[in-house]
């Protein structure tokens, strides 16, 4: 293998997204690879009793997607990635990351990974699920 041709960076738009995006950007530069960014909005309204609610009459999902697009644009601007293709998708985080990675024929997926402790270790994680089902290599950037 001579390197990577398409690096897909999946960000959650938290403060750690910059570190994840920078790592993916470094690798894309090193391998002269195409670079793209992805954020997935997963919205499941839940009432205090834990049951799913019907969507409210306002377009809350649309507002969440629009806000995510604006934050993703700001992240790209701050990193000098204005020309980099980016997507905001709505759905299951795991399923959408895997779908987009396959659809775009990414050969490296870069995402953040937070250390788990307590019960979270036994519950599994998005990163672990993606690692085992991804159609390409996965780099999990260790976050604090």
Q: By helix and strand content, what is the structural category?
A: alpha/beta
Radius of gyration from CA coordinates = 16 Å
Largest sheet: 5 strands, parallel
- Helix fraction? 25-40%
Brief rundown of the structure:
The protein is of the alpha/beta class. The chain is built from 5 helices and 5 strands, in the order βαβαβαβααβ.
Structure report:
The chain is built from five helices and five strands; from the N terminus they run βαβαβαβααβ. With 144 residues, it is α/β, with parallel strands linked by helices. It has one domain: Rossmann fold (3-Layer(aba) Sandwich), CATH 3.40.50. It has a five-stranded parallel β-sheet with strand order 3-2-1-4-5, sandwiched between helices. The relative contact order is 0.21.
């Amino acid at each position: 293998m001579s390197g990577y041709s398409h690096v897909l960076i999946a960000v959650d738009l938290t403060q750690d997204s910059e570190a994840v995006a920078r790592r993916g950007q470094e690798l894309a530069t090193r391998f002269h690879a195409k670079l793209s960014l992805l954020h997935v909005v997963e919205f499941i309204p839940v009432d205090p009793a834990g049951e799913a609610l019907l969507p409210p009459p306002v377009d809350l999902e649309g507002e969440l997607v629009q806000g995510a697009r604006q934050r993703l644009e700001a992240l790209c601007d701050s990193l000098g990635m204005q020309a980099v293709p980016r997507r905001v998708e709505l759905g299951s985080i795991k399923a959408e990351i895997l779908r987009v990675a396959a659809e775009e024929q990414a050969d490296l997926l870069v995402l953040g990974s937070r250390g788990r402790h307590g019960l979270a270790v036994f519950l599994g994680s998005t990163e672990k699920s993606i690692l085992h089902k991804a159609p390409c290599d996965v780099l999990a950037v260790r976050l604090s």
